[in-house]
Write a structure and sequence with these properties.
The structure is a homotetramer. By secondary structure, chain A is α+β, with helices and mostly antiparallel strands. The first copy, chain A, contains nine helices and 19 strands. Chain A has a single domain, classed as 4-Layer Sandwich (Chorismate synthase, AroC fold), CATH 3.60.150.10. At the B-D interface, helix 9 of B face helix 9 of D.
Chain lengths: 358, 358, 358, 358
């Protein structure tokens, strides 16, 4: 069923498989007159790109984007923007052994059951290669939000059991972009990096979390009752490969609190209405309240291991497989721009929608 | 913006405010020929009803449902089913003091900012009274799923810091329905109850989590990439009032694991393909794999306290408010049927959609 | 499948059957702060009401509307507006004879085939009673458009072969409302009335067309390529019971013309850009151009005749049926407010959408 | 606003401008396992292609399609199918003169007003070049419908005032494809051709109608009340460039009839339930009844003339323009495959949806 679209009035529709000809995304509903800075799109893609450091997959993809339509003389025209990103370094033969086997915790079995067939090459459509489409589209969303004063930053807040302990307000976004883990806290980044390297060297993988902060969002974005801002953000984040959970504001910790401890008290400061705490995560009743929005996304460890694993093939027989191909020991660093891109796509849709009612 | 609908081909659209004339829901896309057992709908509503025990709000709502359309001679006709539930025990005057005040961690300020006006009576549209619509519609979804062999159960898995420690497979669903906390573990239920009572008696409130399990779901439900089954479940759960987080399968804990520990190994048992563990939570690549689906939903403590709280009014002046009205010290027990109802609504939509492609 | 909704951000969802408990409509996406004039809604319903003249069905429906939600202290709150209209004068027994028979050119056979069951009483969901929902919702749409300076008028432009020959600019809208045929041309109204009366007296029915004109619509409404303004209008009009065709601007006549004759030449008049002719019907490339929008809707004759007709019953046997019940010999006069209502619903949706991009 | 998608579960999303890099379409929701015959897609594109005869535009477009995704080893995988068609023979300089002028009855002025900017080259997004996307996607829809026994044929039923007078049942579909006008009646085709040639030679253009017939459609397709089969067909047809009207079954002529003349009487023939006449056009109450579906689409004359026309430029000054470029004197012959393609897209969506409820 048609399900490769995200957004209501600013909507992306995506296509492409890991080891097919390439990826493609149509942005439908981009306002006209936006200056489309292709170097910024490319920069965002580079943040997601494989091979950017020693702890990411060594697949070599230039991820060079072509804009096919919707942009004329450097500006959006209001027409749909089709962007193409070719697959350059696909190696389908890496996947010959899994053509008939169901890899553990991959989507092999479920695609097989659902479609009766599958493009086994690198997971086909279920591959995280799809996220290149989101990052490209998200870059354009960011350009629009930038003009509206809305700023989105994400960083890796935990790898395995190693967590960033500093408060969100102390996150160093610049540092985050400069270390290979994308950790916003210098003191934690080294131990995270060490953990990932150790994990990689043992042929294993490891999970973690990404925290995202949205600043400058005006009050009033989000729609009751089934398009609450946090519900749309959660839906988008849960669409990311390997995502296992989403929480915003106080999140699961908040469920342990008492109301007297959790409630955010309003005060009318010189610079406007503010809450003295922000357990609400900038969203109340599904609508932004003007405070910073923040949320956390949990990712499981990558399923492809460089060690032997037992599984079953399509004939129902037991087989042993071992990852070939080129894989990330930890998706977290590359998940950062993906989380930001989806957040931008959700925000720009709500921001445009809110204008319809002003 | 139109945002009070959930679902794609089996879709509900809802209306109503806490202290208005009543609630209403239209189910659009219900298959024809379903026997509509109104006593079952009523039973589900009774599970959500206020006043059902000493630890729920004492508001007295009969929640008697009327089916206005779409059912003829006891069976669905394929036409939209409009159900009405009147508000009987509304006491708008309980809210006079907050007509001008923004209650902490409620949606008062955000509705005010978004709409320029608000129905302050009991939160108006932002009230959890809305969930009565979902439970009524969910009851019909459950009837359909029942025929398809899909069974949905939820229970309270934590209150504050008290957690159910037994595995999901040991949950006692019958017991859960028989104790006021809806805890699936007899040994934990007493301490949970004590905690809620203590909290209530101190005028405070407390949060917790609900765990939901879906059994009998065939492999193949869920749609890549933006209608993954868990993403649609997450979106629905995050739409519940006071929800702060959603995780499925291994969830946030899974983010701390290594791949070798987390991967679910396939085995071809006598009774078909199974995974030996179920960290995937029954969903891989966004598609059900035939194993039990399970997820957890985090709820913050209720924002209305029976103690004094500082806040600000619409004029920007500091004021002190104190809950009147009748409120739950802990929403968890009543959240159980709500979680189940939304899960049923998501499942039935995906189940029907999957048939289109068979 | 969910299909009882119209509109994208201002969306109605409807329910109800001809001889069930009543009708209901939810407006989702109505802006907050709109003064809801219930007497105007009632007035619009009265224009559609059965029994308003000697040439309409004698079914007696007060069509008294109740607003259940979404309006507080006389103004819309931004929450969904649920309106209910009870069925007061239903006489299901009038339809006993057709419980097993498929009435010619009704939806009896198709509903039976699609749903395996049907509510035969007065056509159930396929009845034009549904349109009461649209007129109620359309009244609120008109209130919003009124503030935006957009004015919608419709009138009967033909009955059978009798056509209004005066140009649209000469239509007398006030006169249209004062004669039972709703003909905008005094000289034609008498012959139309006579034709309808003759037809009625012979137990027969007759078709005709309604022409609708939208004035004050700013340039820029409508969305390429699959939500062109005229395509959305056409879709809405073709949703009306008994509708057989839709054309806008020059319409089918335009297909006979040469380009040199058909093209609308631009001129820059003192009062802004105008075309010297308006074969475009105020819409070019699917987008309003600031000129009056006009379109025509064709209705077939009512299928229920007061004479004997051959048909087949559910057992496949030949039977003879004859209309009982109370039916219109010509739907055209009552179709006028329905056409206007749907036009208003389409326009308000596009008008709000256009604001999102300003 | 996002509006470049058609369909609900089988949905296309399109992009591209007349004189940009090329066109692209994503089909989302194509069932897995369909054999994708690219030579058939190409054949359909060739039917729409410019330069195919002396009475079509001489623009030379190979319209060679590339399938980027969603097809593996010759079969659909269930993943979105992205197809690209490059623009090879674009000549943007042909449009230099209209960069500042608003061409009469084109979308120049409305795009300018809506977007504040426009890609003037050949109409940009408003060009009928877009329809190449529809024909490519429609070809795949036809392959699916073919397996379901549903057959779609269209032909030119009038050019200017010259109309095909034979009944639809006598249409010669093979002949239609063999004459340049795509007229289904040999005796009329010559006079149509002569008329088009005369019109072309005088630098003028002419309109006409296309009639489409759908055979083999089972009873039960179409959804009350806002996705009636004919309303969805009408919506799709009205999305075609230059379309001015849509009617199905008896259409506008039906509005002149009496009920006793118009009603289609059911009879239970040896080969099942049939109506003795088919004024309903195969659709009753918005749902297919098993009889042939037929409808007619009106097209205005092409707006670009090879003669001088007065108009106004963006500065508001009067200017004279004259078509350069390469244009069709009559779009009708090339509209035939476009009408068929959209009909196929609407039908396949409804056909899949109907399966969800079986």
């Amino acid at each position: 069923m048609a399900s490769n679209s995200l957004g209501r009035i600013f909507r992306i529709t995506t296509a492409g498989e890991s080891h097919g000809a390439g990826m493609g995304v149509i942005i439908d509903g981009c306002p006209a007159g936006i200056e489309i800075d292709t170097s910024f799109i490319q920069k965002e893609l580079d943040r997601r790109r494989p091979g950017q450091s020693s702890i990411t997959t060594q697949r070599k993809e230039g991820d060079k984007i072509t804009i096919q339509s919707g942009v004329y003389e450097g500006k959006s025209t209001g027409a749909p923007i089709l962007m193409l990103i070719p697959n350059e370094d696909s190696r389908p033969s890496d996947y010959d052994q899994v053509e008939q086997a169901f890899r553990p915790s991959h989507a092999d079995y479920t695609y097989h059951q659902k479609y009766g067939t599958r493009d086994h090459r690198g997971g086909g459509r279920s591959s995280a290669r799809e996220t290149v489409n989101w990052v490209a589209a998200g870059a354009i969303a960011k350009m629009i939000l930038h003009q509206a004063g809305i700023k989105i930053n994400a960083a890796v807040s935990s790898v395995g059991s190693i967590q960033v302990e500093i408060p969100i307000s102390a996150f160093d976004w610049e540092f985050a972009e400069q270390n290979p883990v994308r950790c916003p806290d210098p003191s934690t980044s080294i131990s995270m990096l060490t953990l990932i390297e150790e994990t990689r060297d043992s042929g294993d993988t490891i999970g973690g979390t990404v925290t995202c902060v949205i600043e400058g969002c005006p009050a009033g974005l989000g729609e009751p009752v089934f398009h609450k801002l946090h519900a749309d953000l959660g839906h988008a984040m849960l669409s990311i490969n390997a995502c296992k959970g989403f929480e915003y504001g106080s999140g699961f910790e908040g469920s342990k609190m008492r109301g007297s401890e959790h409630n955010d008290v309003w005060s009318n400061a010189d610079d406007g209405m503010k809450t003295t705490t922000n357990n609400s995560g900038g969203i109340q009743g599904g609508i932004s309240n003007g405070m910073p929005i923040y949320f956390k996304v949990a990712f499981k460890p990558v399923s492809t291991l460089m060690t032997n694993q037992n599984t079953v093939d399509t004939a129902g027989d037991a087989v042993i497989i071992k990852g070939k191909g080129r894989h990330d020991p930890c998706v977290l660093p590359r998940a950062v721009p993906i989380v930001e891109a989806l957040a931008a796509l959700v925000l720009v849709d709500h921001w445009l929608l809110s204008k319809a009612y002003q």
